[in-house]
Amino acid sequence: MAHIKLPEGLPGIRGAMAFRPETARPLNDLVEVLLHAPNSLTPGERELIATYVSSENDCYYCQTIHGAIAAASLNGDEALVKQVKHDFHNADISEKLKALLVIAGKVQRGGKHVTTEDVAAARTQGATDLEIHDTVLIAAAFCMFNRYVDGLATIQPRDEAMYRERGKWIAREGYVNVSKEYLPAEAAR
Amino acid sequence: MPHIKLPEGFAGISSGFVYRPETAKPMRELAHVLLHEPSTLTPGERELIATYVSSQNDCYFCQTSHASAAAAHLGNDWGLTEQVRQNYEQAPVSDKLKSLLTIAGKVQQGGKHVTAEDVAAAREQGATDLEIHDTVLIAAAFCMFNRYVDGLATWQPKDPEMYAKMGQHLATEGYLAPSIKA
Asked: Considering CB atoms only, which of B3, B37, B112 is closest to A132?
């Protein structure tokens, strides 16, 4: 049971967002820019960063839904998503993404863990300042989202098919569009 | 030196905001709703929660700028912001705020640390569901802001006057207004 009375039938962050549409709007706007809007990092790469950080924070809802969105963006490759969560160093991803995942993992533990060497290593693999910035902010933002979802003890059903279907939908439509489903009309846009 | 090339003359999160306006906008709006817009928790109480979490995350810029904003709301009571950071249980704040700070401290460690008992204790002191929600989200949001500021190794000058000016600006204008240069 959730710690506070949240609207029923809305798992994970959706219940919390429907409870407080005033904060839901900027939260959706932020994740839309970070994960869905055009970027030199693909949506699949950015969703893998979000999934990895959520997995390090042990947030079931977030790692499962973002894992599903990542897979939907990567030709349905769920095995790759699992591998990134468990051991990204040996996953079939670019060296650049590995270097960014190292930075994201440091941010998850705390901002001061990121070293000049971590950033230099990412640059050597071709990462730009903007990509490094967005990696830091994606990792930081998921330290918020994960705590929000678990800190309220939201309902997090163990229903893989549900996450898979929503994952495809969000990968296609983005966060702001999908939020219209569970937010009151005046808060969604 | 910051890890990436950020605009010069802007301290802490302001440099990230000026660098990337697309993400700055929702982050500012979120902070504005959580800390500045009308709420049954006073702006001073909410800034104390933000200050406490930023202190637990050891983020110099965030804890100092939000302590300044808290002090500006609370009759320039700097001692209180210090005491809340060091030992809020003994600080002259309401028992309700103490129970919300306990929840915020648990969220800082990780969302799963918050227990049904923590929430029941806050309710006993009169906290509403909305106040508990906002406490959880303020604490979670500062786990983002703090990591953003330190993860980019932003410039964080040790200049009390700059933070006092910034705190006054935040307390009166809120978080939507453009960043001021240090």
From this structure: B3
Name, in order, each residue with C-beta under 8 angstroms of B178's C-beta and a sequence gap of 6 or more: none
In this structure, what token pair is assigned to residue A25? 């709007």
A4–B133 CB contact, under 8 Å: yes
CB–CB contacts below 8 A, A to B: 150
Q: What chain B residue is nearest to A150 in terms of C-alpha separation?
A: B111
Give chain A's radius of gyration (CA, Å): 16
Whether residue A141 contacts residue B144, with contact meaning beta carbons closer than 8 Å, is answered with: yes
Q: Please tell me the distance from the alpha carbon of residue A58 to that of residue A61, in angstroms, as a whole number.
A: 9
Tell me whether residues B150 and A26 touch, CB distance under 8 A.
Answer: no
d(CA B80, CA B93): 9
For chain B, the distance separating the N- and C-terminal CA atoms, rounded to the nearest angstrom, is 16
Contact B68, B166 (CB under 8 A): yes
Give the model confidence (pLDDT) of A50-93 as tens digits: 999 999 999 999 999 999 999 999 999 999 999 999 999 999 99
Contact B29 A137 (CB under 8 A): no
| Contact check, Cβ <8 Å, A143/B144 | yes
* All domains in chain B, ordered by first residue: 22-173 (1.20.1290.10)
ipTM value for the complex: 0.98
Are B175 and B28 a contacting pair, CB within 8 Å?
yes
pTM above 0.90, yes or no: yes
- Rounded CA-CA distance A134/B169 in Å is 28
Which of B147, B123, B149, B124 lies closest to B135, judged by CA? B123
Can you spell out the DSSP letters for A68-91?
HHHHHHTTT-HHHHHHHHHHGGGS
Q: Which of B44, B139, B16, B34 is nearest to A26 (CA)?
A: B34
